[in-house]
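Backbone-to-sequence.
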């Protein structure tokens, strides 16, 4: 049996992405459950007005996610365990100076790479910077300082799928639409080179070299680069730019020589089950937009009723990362660990949507029957909505023209009506765009992620440490979790960030 605590007492760890939703929980759980940890190094990118150390204090130490740890251990004790390094995974050797690399060499045994860009359809070069180039640069650092590397990816690198997604498929040469694992027609290096060439052509078409200060770019360039990422992903069968880039990043890592590595692939990471406290969640890249729209009264749901939603609490993901990290340090790891829940405890879409609808009734007293739409019905509904808005706009125009012909002044009234209609139009467009981003996960595909390797990993860990960093999705009561963790967590920690955004109102 592997003693995780003893392993961490013998090895220092370098964490990237420590200021992210998952990264904070990994950092907090590590310090809370293993206070004998030898030392933790945190790599943070400085901002224009904040140093890496200032960002660490503001975004990590002062985060609610760290409050229980600091209360238990003390702020000074926590701070003494951590060294903050100024760096950027989007730069060669993560922007670390030679002197810094020398200080880390021989000390750090493991890099936990939790950094990455999570936007579904960003400009493709932005996604590459974190999710492709960043993997290569972190791997360079790992080899330079003689450390092992655990990389956090996503289960959805599988792309289009229906049914059980195995975790034993080869990584190199993978693309979702291949006929078989031996096909050999896809090269990640060729695809990366092709995409970079297309990116350059976009910039050159407007007389830019892509090096605008601060990454500033015109709206036209942004839209064209976002569209390019979408098209490259669709060409091979990935559902968005994010999963396309994450898969290429995995292949960059798998092609590394003289590096021990492991990949952890979580499903959709949601609010905490237990740690740092029930319901902790941050940011809007989870299911939060869907939940907020449901609570706002959404009735027409383009989802498969009989499909599971593959979600996993953030603290279970953090626990699994620490367990796999210990196995990797001991040389007892496997290449890939998928972290899903549907293979042992599926959360079905139909009861989830009805649960969200009941919560909406209780909060807003809105009644109405939930409808589950097919892709065809969803498209027809969208067209009907667009036609209604167009007819209303035309009617307002005719009425205004008639009043003007009669010499009556209705400009102010029609201006208010037109503004209200425009708001409604923008709200509908935003809702449809938001739903579009989630359709691959709730309508177009049916995913069940095999998660056998993580269960095997936990069989190698002592029972007392399994209790410290549990992986137990089979014990989750989903109704209780969504009622007491997920929904209140989103309302408290996510909704305040978007409450002023009228777009979430239905």
């Amino acid at each position: 049996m592997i003693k995780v605590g003893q392993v961490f007492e013998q090895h220092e760890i370098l964490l990237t992405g420590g200021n992210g939703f998952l990264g904070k929980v990994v950092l907090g759980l590590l310090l809370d459950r293993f206070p004998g940890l030898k030392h933790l190094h945190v790599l943070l990118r400085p901002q224009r007005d904040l140093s890496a150390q200032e960002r660490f204090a503001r975004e990590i130490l002062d985060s609610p996610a760290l409050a229980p740890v600091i209360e238990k251990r003390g702020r000074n004790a926590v701070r003494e365990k951590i060294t903050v390094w100024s760096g950027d995974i989007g730069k060669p050797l993560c922007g670390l100076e030679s002197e810094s690399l020398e200080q880390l060499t021989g000390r750090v045994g493991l890099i936990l790479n939790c950094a990455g860009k999570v936007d579904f359809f960003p400009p493709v070069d932005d996604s590459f910077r974190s999710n492709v180039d960043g993997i290569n640069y972190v791997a360079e650092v790992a080899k330079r300082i003689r450390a092992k590397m655990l990389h956090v990816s996503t289960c959805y690198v599988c792309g289009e799928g229906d049914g059980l997604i195995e975790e034993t498929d080869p990584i190199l040469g993978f693309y979702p639409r291949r006929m078989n694992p031996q096909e050999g027609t896809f090269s990640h290096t060729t695809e990366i080179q092709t995409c970079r060439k297309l990116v350059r052509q976009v910039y050159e078409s407007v007389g830019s070299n892509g090096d605008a200060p601060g990454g500033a770019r015109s709206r036209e360039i942004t839209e064209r680069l976002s569209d390019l990422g979408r098209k490259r992903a669709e060409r091979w069968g990935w559902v968005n730019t994010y999963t396309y880039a994450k898969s290429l990043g995995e292949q960059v890592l798998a092609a590394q020589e003289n590096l021990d590595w492991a990949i952890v692939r979580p499903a959709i990471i949601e609010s905490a089950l237990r740690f740092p406290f029930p319901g902790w969640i941050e940011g809007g890249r989870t299911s939060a937009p869907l939940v907020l729209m449901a609570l706002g009264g959404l009735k027409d749901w383009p989802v498969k009723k009989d499909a599971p939603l593959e979600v996993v609490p953030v603290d279970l993901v953090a626990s699994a990362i620490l367990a796999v990290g210990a196995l990797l340090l001991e040389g007892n790891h496997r290449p890939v660990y998928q972290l899903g829940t549907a293979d042992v405890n599926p959360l079905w879409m139909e009861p989830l949507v009805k649960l969200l609808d009941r919560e909406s009734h209780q909060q807003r007293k809105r009644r109405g029957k939930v409808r589950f739409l097919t892709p065809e019905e969803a498209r027809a509904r969208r067209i009907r909505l667009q036609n209604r808005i167009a007819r209303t706009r035309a009617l307002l125009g005719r009425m205004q023209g008639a009043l003007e012909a009669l010499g009556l002044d209705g400009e102010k009234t029609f201006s208010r009506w037109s503004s209200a209609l425009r708001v409604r139009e923008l709200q509908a467009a935003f809702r449809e765009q938001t739903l579009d981003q989630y359709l691959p996960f709730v309508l177009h595909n049916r995913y069940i992620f095999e998660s056998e390797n993580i269960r095997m990993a936990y069989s190698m860990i002592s029972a007392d440490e399994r209790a410290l960093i549990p992986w137990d999705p089979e014990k989750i009561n989903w109704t209780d979790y969504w009622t007491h963790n997920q929904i209140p967590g989103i309302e408290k920690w996510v909704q305040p960030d978007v409450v002023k955004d009228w777009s979430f109102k239905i």
